[in-house]
Amino acid sequence: MKKFRIYFVLLFLVSILVGCTETNILDRVGLTTLVGYDVGTEERISTTAVVREINPEFQSNVEVITTENETSKGNRLKANRRLSKKITIGQMRVVLFGEEVAKGDLHFYIDSLLENPSVSNGLYLAVVEGDTSELLQHEYKNIDDIGQHIYRLMEQNIKNEHMISSTLHEIAHDYYMKGKDIAMPIIKREEEFVELTGVALFNGGKMVSALPVEDSFYLKIMRDSFKAGIFETILPKEDIPPALMKDTITEMPVAFDAIRSKRTLKLVDPATPEFDVQLKIKARLLEVHPNINTGDPKVIEGLESAVSKNLSKELTRIVAQSQSVQSDIFGFGDTYRSSVRNSELTKEKWHEMYKNMKINVKVKFEILRDGVFE
Amino acid sequence: MKFKLPFKKKQQQQPYKEMNAVKEKVELIAPSENDFTQLIKDTTNNPADLVIKSIPPNLTLIYINNLVNDQTLNEHIITNLQNNFFETPEAIWPILSIPEVNISSQLEETIASLLNGSVLIYVNGYSQVVLAPIPKRESRSLSTPENESQVIGAQVGFNESLSTNISLIRRYIISPNLCNEELKVGKRTHTSLSLLYMNGIASDQMVNTLRQRIQDVDVDSLLDSAVLLEMIDDNTLSPFPQMLLTERPDRFCDGLLNGKLGIIVEGSSLAIVCPIAFVEFFESREDQNLRWQVATFARLLRFTAIFLSVFLTPIYVGALTFHYEVIPQALLVPLSESRALVPFPPVFEALLLELIIELLREAGARLPTKIGQTIGIVGGIVIGTAAVQAGITSNILLIFVALSALASFTTPSYTMGNVIRLIRFPIILIAGFWGFYGIMLAFCFILIHLLRQSSLGAPYLSPYYPPRLKDMRDSIIKFPLPFVAKRASLTRPADQEKFDPEPVKPEKS
Fold first, then answer.
1. What part of A 137-156 touches B (C-beta under 8 Å)?
2. Same domain, yes or no, for A129 and A266?
3. B431 interfaces chain A, CB cutoff of 8 Å
4. Of B77, B179, B260, B264, which has the fewest CB atoms closer than 10 Å, so is most exposed?
C-alpha cells in the first residue's frame, strides 16, 4: 500500500505539473486558412494570410493581412500584432506562391512547411499569376471567405480529376524524387472570379514554364492512370477519316467522359533514352458535332482512330514542350532509374538526358458507350 | 500485487466473544420444563413474539409468533396434540401431519430451528425436543425484471425469496444434475445462500474455488448479493465487476447450462453468475432469441455505444483545447460559433454538462417512478435549452453529452453501465490536461487494467485475450447456430458439446 501511495502522489504531481501545455482553444485562436507568399521590397518575404476570427456576436469575419519581414515566422509575429486572437496555422488548407516567388526557388518553402508538425500534408499548393496579395486583397462581390473559396475550388477540380493534384505530400514526394519534377495548378483572378488557368512546370524548385488549363487532361493521362474526368478536343481536318466527312467541315469538336485510362511506360533504349508510351483509354462519347450516326460501328471505329491519332499528337506536343524547359513532370526519369542498373541518377544528370529523350506514343482509344448519359 | 480486504484480517485476529460464549455455555437440553423454557428465554433474549404454550398434561409448545404459519399450526399440530397423550418425543413424530419433523437434543440446533420458523414440542422430562418446521413464507409475487427488460423472451424476474428463486430455476432446468448447495454467511444474520451449478458441465475446480471463497467470507451480516459479490470476486479494488448480477432466471440458467456457477442469496432479487468475461456484460439474453444477423447488429451497436459513451466527450474536449487541427473544415465554423459565447474552457464546460446529466439520472432513479419520468423530460429539455441560451454550454456539446449518456444506457448490465459512465470523468479531465495523448494514455491504462483482471481465475478479456478463435463466434459477432455448438472455454466445461451441429432438415441444406 505504501508503494502505491507514492505512485499516486507521483501521478498527481505529473498531471498537475505537466498539464501546463500551451492550449489552443478553438474559439480563442485565429485560424489561418490560406497563406500566400510574394517577394516584397528588398527581397524580403511578403506574406498574405487569410485569417478567420470568431466573434461573440455569432458572426465570423475573415481578415486578410499582408505583412513583410525577413522570415515567414517573423511575418506571423507581425500579423499577430494586428489581430485580437493568436494566429494558428493548423487549419491551413492552401498555400499560394506568387509568380515571382515560384520563379525563384520553392525549396525553402516546401522544406519549412514539411517541418512544421501542425501543417497538414494534405494542403494544396498553387501558383498565382501575378501577386498573391492582389488576388487575396480584392473584395469579391460573391465570395465571402476567400480562403475557403480557393480551397473548395481546388478540391472540387482535383477530386473530379479536372486538374492535377498538388497536395504538399505529393509535391514533396515528387520534389525529392530523382526522376520527376513538380507541377502545380496556376490560379488567377478574372474580375470577380478566381479561376484555374493553367499548370506550372518546375525545374527543381524553379518555375520554368506553364501549360494552358486545356492541356491538364493530357498531363493527367500522361502522368498516371486515372478514373474520371470529362475532356473535350477538336479534331482537325487531317485527323478525321474521310468516311466521316459528309459535309465540308474543317474541324470536329468532340467531348468524352473518360472512364478509365491506363498508362504503361517502357524504356526501349537506355542510351538515348527512348520510351514507348502506351495509353489505353476507355471512354463514353458525350457530345459530337456535327451530327454523325453513332449507331454505326464503322463510324465509331473511325472516330476512335481519329481521337487516338489526335491524342498522340497532343501528347507528343506537351512532352516536347516540357523537354524544351527540362521539366520532367511525367516521371520518365523514375522509370529510367528503375530500369537501368547502377544509373546513379541525379536530378541534374536526368535533366541533361531529358532534353534529348525520344518517346513513341501509342494510344488505344475505345468508346464503350454512347447515347444516354448521366 | 494483491490486495486483501482489511476487515477480513481484523476478524481473524479478534473472533467474536459472544458467539463463543453461547457455544460453551450449554450444549444439551435440560430435562425439566421450567429449566428448558428459561433457557430458551435467556438465549433468545425473551422476545415479545415468543409464545410458550402448555398443552396438558405434559407438552409445551414454543414458537415465534411471526415466523410460523398459523393455519398449519392450528390444523396440523395443535389439533393432533390436544386429543392424545404422549409418553416420549418419538411418539409425537408419526401423529403430526406435516412433511418434515426432527428430533434434536442440542440447544444450538434447536434455537436455529426456532428462528427459522419451527415449532418446538417439548415433552416434560426428556432431554430431547421435537422440531416441526412450519415457516411462514412471505414474499412479493413474481414480477417482470425491471432493470433488465427485453422485448422477446420470458418476462419473469427473481424476487427476494430464495425458495421461490430456486423453484423458478428448477422449472427451467429439470435435471438431477442441477446441484444446489446451501451455505450460510454472516455471523449475526446467518443468511442462507445457494450455490448452484450443473454437475457434468461446470468445472469441479471452479466449484471448489467458489465454495471455498464463500466459506472464507467472515462477516457480520449479509444483506444483499451485490455485497457478497464484492467480497468474493477476484479484484475488489477494480471498478469493473468480475461477476454478473442478474435478475433474470433465464439468463441465470443460460449461464448454468454453459458451465457457469450461480449464487442466490436469501433476501436478494439479484443472482450472481460467474465466471464471466468482459464482453458478456454487453450481451443480452435476448440476443439468443434473435436471428444471428439481428443479434450481431445489436451487439455491434452496443459495442460502438461503449466507445461513444467513454470517448466522445473527451475527444470533443481534447480537440477543442489542443488539437484544433483535426477538426474537419465543415465543422469548424459551426463549432466555434456555438462556443463563441461560452466563457469556460472546454473541460469545464464538458464536466459541468456531464454532471448535470448525472444529476438528472440520479434524481430520476431515486424518485418514485411517476415523478422520475417527469424529471427526465423536464430536466432534459428545460435545463438543456436553458444552458445553451444562457451561454454556459455549446449546443454541439449538448448533443455529444446526451448521446454518450444515451449510449451508456444500452449496456444490458446496470452495474457495468455505471462503470462506463464513471470512467468517463477521469478521461475528460485527462483530455483537458493532455489532449489526445491523455485520452490515449487513459485508453491504454484501462486496457492494461482489463487485461490483468480475471473472473474466478478465468481471463477477463477472453476470448480476445488470450485469443480463442472458436469462442469469438459468439461474442461481439454472433455466428449462425451450427457454428456455436460448443461451449465457450472460459468456464473450462467438463462437457464441451452443446448440441449436434448437423441440421435437422438435411435435405434442405
1. 148, 151
2. no
3. no
4. B179
The cell numbers describing A178, all together, are 530523382
Q: Cβ-count burial of A339 within 10 angstroms (0-12 exposed, 13-18 middle, 19+ buried)?
A: middle
Of A15, A23, A91, the CB nearest to B322: A23
Residue A247 domain flag: yes
What's A303's domain CATH number?
3.30.300.210
End of a domain among A186, A201, A217?
Answer: A217
The count of structural domains within chain A is 2
Chain A touched by B318 (CB under 8 Å): no
Q: What is the pLDDT of residue A374?
A: 45
Say whether both B389 and B281 belong to one domain. Answer: no
B363 pLDDT higher than 90:
no
Q: Is the domain of A154 the same as that of A260?
A: no
Count of domains observed in chain B = 3
> E strands along B207-338, which residues?
244-246, 261-265, 271-274
Partner-chain contact B332 A56, CB within 8 Å: no
Q: Which of B468, B451, B458 is nearest to B275 (CA)?
A: B458
Q: Are residues B372 and B450 both part of a single domain?
A: yes
Residue of B nearest to A17 (CA): B433
Is residue B32 located within the same domain as residue B89? yes
Q: 3-state DSSP call for residue A352?
A: helix
CB contact under 8 A, A60 and B342: no
B345/B378 same-domain check = yes
Q: Which chain B residues are within 8 Å of A51, Cβ to Cβ?
A: none
Mean pLDDT of the residues in chain B: 87
Contact B336 A58 (CB under 8 A): no
- CB–CB of B324 and A24 under 8 A? yes
Q: Are residues B206 and B126 in the same domain?
A: no
- Residue of chain B nearest A62, judged by CA positions: B333
Same domain, A125 and A263: no
Q: Are residues A200 and A318 in the same domain?
A: no
- Do B441 and B386 share a structural domain? yes
**Residue B315 neighbours by CB distance under 10 Å:** 20
The reply to whether A271 and A361 lie within a common domain is yes
Does residue A340 share a domain with residue A263?
Answer: yes
- Smallest CA–CA distance from B340 into chain A, residue: A56
Domain end (from A191, A217, A243): A217
Checking ipTM against 0.90, whether it exceeds it is no
| A255 in the same domain as A159 | no
- pLDDT single digits (tens) B57-100: 788 889 998 899 888 888 888 888 887 777 788 888 788 888 88
* B349 Cα to chain A: minimum distance (Å): 12
Decide if B107 is inside a domain.
yes
Residue among A109, A197, A117 nearest A153 (CA): A197
For residue B282, the enclosing domain spans 162-288
- Nearest-CA distance A155 → chain B (Å): 12
Q: Domain range holding A52?
A: 21-217
How many of the other CB atoms lie within 10 Å of CB of B491? 24
Return the number of CB contacts < 8 Å for A and B.
70
Residue from A231, A126, A101, A232 nearest A189 by CA: A126
Q: Which of A72-86, B14-28, B314-328 has the lowest mean pLDDT?
A: B14-28
B261-265 and B271-274 strand pairing = antiparallel
Contact B339/A56, CB-based, under 8 Å?
no
Q: Do A336 and A361 contact (CB within 8 A), yes or no?
A: no
B335 shares contact with chain A (CB less than 8 Å): yes
Which of A19, A27, A91 comes nearest B339 by C-beta?
Answer: A27
Q: Is B307 helix (H, G, I), strand (E, B) or coil?
A: helix
**φ, ψ at A296 (rounded to 5°):** -85, 120
Q: Which DSSP category does B497 fall into?
A: B
Distance of CA B317 to the CA centre of its chain: 36
A4 belongs to a structural domain: no
Min distance A118 CA to chain B CA atoms (Å) = 7
